[in-house]
Amino acid sequence: MKYIFKLLVAVLCCTFVGCDNDEWGNGDPAMEHVYYFGFENWGDKNNFNNNKVQYNVDQGSTIEIPVQFHSERIRSYDVVVYYYVSTGASDLKRGVDYQIVDDKGTVLEPGADNAFSMTFSQAKKDVKNIYVKALNVNKGSFDVLTFDPVAGEISHPDNIVNSQTKDYEVRAFTKNYKVKVNVK
Questions:
Q1: Nearest 5 degrees, angle CA 24-CA 30-CA 34?
Q2: Cα–Cα distance, 171 to 159 (Å, whole number)
Q3: What pLDDT, in 10s, does the model give residues 119-167?
Q4: Does the predicted TM-score (pTM) go above 0.85?
């Protein structure tokens, strides 16, 4: 009886050890055209759920905020993702105190839903930058987010979709989905 029990325990342990990490959808057709978008800098590597990553920008200067697009395949279509700015309780105003610009310094304007767009050609994995230029007016802070702040607190599975078309879905990370920009 003792040997049967030990054999049963050994078999059960092997079933747990035999499980491997889930690869990108692991061939699941439902995940074939699902991508992820978020900030490259996760801050404290021991605490990924802190949303405490901050960038400081001096007035008159521009900073880069790197974002990453996760994809394992090249597609025939381009993927568009969105990012947002939210001043919350701050008095800072976009266009007065800071601007969102491209890599050449050209001012970008958000779309009708107050989102800035970024395109990843052929759905290729990549890291790009969001550029924030501080103007010489007021000091304060604001957040840059990978989901619409009007939607409320980000939570899985309720509101993690960043972008969706008939061809693909892009999800925002549920951890570290925003960064703070301090205008000094």
A1: 55
A2: 9
A3: 999 999 999 999 999 998 888 899 999 988 887 777 766 668 889 999 9
A4: no
